[in-house]
Structure formats: structure tokens, C-alpha cells
Amino acid sequence: MKKMLNSLLFLSLLGCSDLFLPYEPVEGEPHSWELELTVEPDPRLDLDDNGYYHLTLDRNNWQTLHRLSGHVYRGGEPLEVQKINWRSSHYWFIGDTLGYVVSIGLTDDLEYVSYDTSYVTWFNGWEVPTVNCCSYSNADGEVNTMFAPVQSMEGDTVMITMYWYHITELDFSDFGRRDESFYIVLD
Q1: What single-letter DSSP state applies at residue 133?
Q2: DSSP three-state, residue 119
Q3: Alpha helices (runs of H) in the chain, residue ranges in sequence order
Q4: Can you list the domains of the chain with their CATH numbers?
């Protein structure tokens, strides 16, 4: 019964316009939700004359780890806690063995011995994206995600897309997806 009353109270609050308007709007000024979001990517890489960023792959490791950044603004001001989704044009697949685990124990003479090896095989065929899916902006409007291309992608050009959802009308009549893309050449 208490749960039902809490639900009814919550639903009645949703109908109150004051819930969405914490201040009295000034005539002629746009409401905060009406201001367009601006997202500026910052891949933290060198940009060539053709507008492509370049990342040199780590030849000593299967994956190269690199942090991609950007900034989110609303009405020219940094926006905190805005979800930004990230998508990459490139993926790779895990092979038949992800790795192995070696069990090590001690003998009666306290010498280390390897007595069992287990292979991790249940990930065979899993698709692995080269960029993490999403992040939220901090108080400065900064967003970050990790980009991890693999050695076999050397010479490819990867398209990274940052996308977000935005409303400009409280009745959701103008609700849509916006995006910003950039390209990284894997050297």
C-alpha cells in the first residue's frame, strides 16, 4: 500500500510544471532546455592538412590505448552530467583463446610449482568495439572515453562518432539525436 501511495505521489508531481521550471521565466529569454547543445571533439592527436587525426599504433602490444576527449556546452556554458555516446567504425573479434591461467602452488618443501593450466576459451567470436560506449560530462563540460585499436588495423582510417539526444521543447516535439564525427588514421 505504501509503495502504491509513493507511486501516486510521484505521478502527481510529474504533472506539475513547476517541477521543470525551477525559476520564473523571463519574457523573451529562452529556457535552459531550449538552448542547443554544442559538442566539440578533442581527440588529443595531431591533425593533418586534410582534417584527419593520426595515431601511431604500439608495435609491442596487441592494443594501443588512447584517451579521446571533448567538451559539451549549452548556451556557451560548460554542461555537467550530459551523456555522450561514442561509436567507432571498427571492431575486432576475439579468437579461440583469450588467454590462460596457470595455477601455482607450493610443494612440501615450499617450492613454487605450476600444476595446472586452464585456457580461457568461452569468448570465442565475441565482437570487441575499439571505443567505449558512453561517458558523462564533468563540471567543466569535459567528456572522455578510451579508444583501443589493434595492430591488424594499421593503415585504416577509423570514423569516431559522438552522439547525444537533445530536446528544445518541453513537450518533446523537438527531440532528436545530434552527432559529431571525426576520423583517425592508424599509422
Answers
A1: S
A2: strand
A3: 2-14
A4: 37-90+130-187 (2.60.40.10), 93-127 (no CATH)
Please indicate, yes or no, whether the overall pTM of this predicted structure exceeds 0.70: no
Rounded CA gap, 39 and 75, in Å? 11
CB atoms within 10 A of CB 141: 19
Residues 97 and 91: their CA atoms lie apart, in Å, by 18
List all residues 6 or more positions away from 3 whose beta carbon is below 8 Å from its beta carbon.
none
Residues 144, 82 contacting (CB under 8 angstroms)? no
DSSP 150: B
Cell numbers standing for residue 66? 588512447
Ramachandran angles phi, psi of 10, nearest 5°:
-60, -45
Q: Determine the straight-line distance between the first and last CA of the chain, rounded to whole angstroms.
A: 63
DSSP string for 102-128: EEEEE-TT--EEEEEEEEE-TTTT-EE
Distance CA 62, CA 58 (A): 8
What is the tens place of the pLDDT at every residue in 30-88? 555 456 788 999 999 999 999 999 999 999 998 999 999 999 998 889 999 999 999 99
